Amino acid sequence: MINLEFSELVKKRRSIHFYTDEPVTEDELNYILEAARWAPSAGNVQPTRFIVVRKEETRQKVWKSTTKIKGVNPQNFILKAPVHIIVLTEPTAYKGRQSQVKSELFSIQDSSAAIMNLLLAVTDLGMGACWVGLFNQESLREDLQIPSYLIPVAIIPVGHTQSKEKPRKRKPLKDIVFYETM
């Protein structure tokens, strides 16, 4: 395991579109999912769920969900990743809690935190992944038999990569940070 220093890890993470044929091991997958599981959640409700997709036939269905959006090019790079992790959220998990007032927002935030942990774990292993949000929810829901109480949040293709993506420019802090008021 690589276990990079945190600041280095954060800066090294990239949206990877190129994958090798090397399989993702169960140990690697468990490391990634374990990191996602430990993400914070409002009231510790933990509404995030994961579907791990390895079979070629099912990965084709996941990819197909990215082709059913008018005006959006299919995200063909997804097909090359040996594993897809579908991240779902369950807004109904907040029922009966104070946080139910914002259950839709909190569930998305909680799942987003899990995705970030997942992406950092992938990077820590020296692998690649990409946060894909452009997909047809209904197509994905139907093809993967996702119950109606769960909301698909993202498709995360994961795999080994030889990509040497350079960091993209970031806005300087002075342009994005404000103190006390805007």
Structure description:
The longest helix has 22 residues, at 103-124. This protein has helices at residues 6-12, 26-37, 56-65, 103-124, 137-143, 173-176, and strands spanning 48-53, 83-89, 128-129, 151-159. Strands 1-2-4-3 form a four-stranded antiparallel sheet, sandwiched between helices. Helix content is 34%, strand content 13%. It contains six helices and four strands. By secondary structure, it is an alpha+beta fold. α2 (26-37) packs antiparallel against α4 and α3 (56-65) packs antiparallel against α5 (137-143). The protein has one domain (6-161): NADH Oxidase. It starts with 5 loop residues before the first helix and ends in a 6-residue tail after the last helix.
Number of distinct beta strands: 4
Number of domains: 1
Strand order of the largest sheet: 1-2-4-3
- Shape, principal axes of CA atoms: globular
Q: Tell me the number of helical segments per DSSP (H or I, 4 or more residues long).
A: 6
What is the assigned CATH homologous superfamily? NADH Oxidase
Derived from helix and strand composition plus strand pairing, the structural class reads alpha+beta
Q: What is the radius of gyration?
A: 17 Å
Unreliable spans: none
- Biggest sheet character: 4 strands, antiparallel
The residue-averaged pLDDT reads: 91
Measured as a percent range, the helix fraction is 25-40%
CATH topology: NADH Oxidase
Q: Could you give the order of the helices and strands? A: HHEHEHEHEH
Distance N terminus to C terminus? Answer: 43 Å
Beta percentage is: 5-15%
Report the CATH architecture: 3-Layer(aba) Sandwich
In the CATH scheme, the class would be Alpha Beta
